Amino acid sequence: MEHSFLLACFIFLSAAVIVVPFAKATGLGSVLGYLLAGIFIGPYGLKLVTDPETILHFSEFGVVMMLFLIGLELQVRELWSMRNKLFGLGLPQVLLTALVLGLIGYLANMPWQSAIIMGLGLALSSTAIVLKIIEERGIMATNTGRSAFSVLLLQDIAVIPILAIIPLLALPELAGHTPVDDGHGPGEVAPEGGWQVAAKTAFVFASMYLSGRYLLRPVLRFIAKSGVREIFTALSLLLVVASALLMEWINVSAALGAFMVGVILADSEYRHELESDIEPFKGLLLGLFFISVGMSIEFEVLMNNPLLIASMVAGLAIIKMAILWGLGMVFRFHIADRMLFAIILAQGGEFGFVLFQFATASGALLPEHADLLNVTVAISMVITPILILIYDRLLSPKMVRDAQTEREPDDISVRNRVIVLGYGRFGQIVTRLITAQGFEATLIDHDAEQIELVKRFDTKVFFGDARRADLLAAAGAHEAQILIIAIHNPNTVTEIAAMVKKHFPHITILARARDRNHAHELMDVGVKHFVRDTFHSGLQLGIKALVALGYEEHRAYRLAKTFARHDIKMLHEAYEIKDDMEAIIGHARTAKELLAQVMESDLVDLDPANATNWTSDKNPDDIERENKARSQE
Amino acid sequence: MANPVLFVIAHPDLGQSRANRHFAASAKSVEGVEVLDLYKVYPDMFVDGSHERHRVDNKSSIVLQFPIYWYAAPGLLKEWIDRTFSYGWAYGTNGKALKGKNFMLSVATGSEKRAYGKNGVHNHPLDAFLLPYKQTAAFCDMNWLDPLVYYHARASEKEELLAHGELLKSRLRELVALTAPQQREQEASHGA
């Protein structure tokens, strides 16, 4: 048992490790790599794994996690800003595609019920594949990325009503006959009556909303305070698993349940931490999912009906692309964007598998039809990365020139341009100044109590360990313009600065330095903008001290400015020689003397008493009289 | 209404200036005069325009006291005028806030009087250098009063300094007295 588990792990992991980097390097992309790996080790390849169904069910959890993550990303505000694309692009895409494909099925002598299901099932694209491609190409913030995502989101939402109407479409000849399902997935039809199901559903959604709103937050805070990192990870996974289980209990797609929990938590301060915790699991499980899609391609069905399947795949891709192309024209996408948008969504998706399975179980679809459709969907999923490859190599280079001149500006409002790490006494001052200008900043702190405290003042701070690149990525570091590191611990500041330089080289870093040595450390890792955290407040108090000693305000201020300029200059000079101990000591000595000179020269510059030429027409008597007058003062 | 006269002193090193310091002290001793030490209030030279407009709104006379640096006032006084005399307040549509106010300069120079003239090092009489202020007053419908000038400030005898201080005080008292009845009138008309 244990051996077979380890062996299975070994097979999957080595397939992924061997094939995926190779696919990536040759430009095939990771999705195609996973799919190919699946075909290699599957029942029609090396036969290393023979029950792809089990693996597929298991790895579908990767899709569940992905939807949880999408939910986390989607605040109501963002959702609202996407409403035009959601209903303008997404809804017509689903309806038109379902109509055209359904009509074709009906004309091909399918029962009308099955034709509807086929149309709807094939209209759905693969969230897993499309989002993976979008992520890999880094186009989430572009018009194409946002539009494709809107379509996917509407499709995911559409799954609910589709699942709801499938039982109503049961074929008369199959009515009453409910095949026994293996217990996984929504195929399990509940034996209760309608009102019981309704009550159960209402209860689950209500309790999910209430606990997400009121119970989860204190629990997350409690766990975060405990400081045991892996327990927070465990809790994140538990959340996803629990919501998936709950949904299965009421026969709703687990992915949708996870999505809803995600949305409920989207405005939580633990969002970015949850995101970066789930992310690696999602990545691996999705990979496993693609492998099992590759494995589950029924080459036997393909061999028996090669022409039919080929024309179904081609028809599916062409019809979907045509409709997407048309919608892209209505929305005035640039030709290069429009083509990518059409290609990227022109496949069947994992929800198709689920729908067809459920429809078969509900007696709305003949098993032989379901087999054909499943193979079609699986092959269309393999086709997409290949089409993308063709687009990249052959089509898009020809359009690049146009695209550069006409391309729509990236939607920078999607993410905040400013990220602030550390929302303590220092970070708060920096942030208040910036946000008062109308900028929105993403705030991250690791102190759960501090987060609670500032929440009372309506400030949203995300919980998380800012040393993690994945957390910063989740917080939008790829899109951010500046990153302010206002953390107290100087070692942490340097560590983060170095990490950000490496992973997000485009960001301008502004760092809080502790002292001169720390400033030098920051300069070592390439930070150009830093301020010693006590430097300016010390100067301010120095000004007040001089005033208290009888200096005039403006003079005190000017002296402090002179001092500051000198000190910053010395800091940079000392950096040049910082590895030479003798030079440092010598520099420190001359710096002290220099300071005295600088202060004096400032006095001379501005003291009008020295401008003797104003006082006289070069009359020596006047100068003498003036000096006398000065000495009296 | 308290303090009808605003006395603005602009000197970056008042402690080093015998004349200007004395005149500021003289102004302070006159009842009805508010003294604004610009470099003290705005040591960072960052003038709060709206605050200053409120300050001026209450006044019927403005007196500017400053040393002549390079044929003009020290930088902060220019900044104070730039920030305070804004569009829609000092000039432009509805910009009538300064209308009818008395406007007087009280300046100190380093050079002797003869340096300001055709044959002096500065080639022009001092009035020529005060022209921008005169025109500012005209543009904002203020009453331009003859400026008080204290030449050769650093080299002057103590008696001269004291005498000029008394002169300044009497001019300020006149302004206070001049504006007081007007205000009473205005307040009376407001009441009616």
TrEMBL record, chain A:
Compartments it resides in: Membrane
Predominant location category: membrane
High-level lineage: Bacteria, Pseudomonadati, Pseudomonadota, Alphaproteobacteria, Hyphomicrobiales
Ranges that cross the membrane: 55-74, 86-108, 114-134, 146-170, 197-216, 228-246, 307-327, 339-360, 372-391
Record-linked NCBIfam families: 2a37
PROSITE patterns: RCK_N
Keywords on record: Antiport, Ion transport, Membrane, Potassium, Potassium transport, Transmembrane, Transmembrane helix, Transport
Protein name: Monovalent cation:proton antiporter-2 (CPA2) family protein
UniProt keyword Transferase, yes or no: no
Source organism superkingdom: Bacteria
From TrEMBL, chain B:
Keyword Oxidoreductase among UniProt keywords: yes
Keywords annotated in UniProt: Oxidoreductase
Name the UniProt record assigns to this protein: NAD(P)H-dependent oxidoreductase
Organism: Maritalea mediterranea
Pfam family, one: Flavodoxin_2
UniProt domain Flavodoxin-like fold: residue ranges: 5-161
Gene3D superfamilies cross-referenced by the UniProt entry: 3.40.50.360
Origin organism lineage: Bacteria, Pseudomonadati, Pseudomonadota, Alphaproteobacteria, Hyphomicrobiales
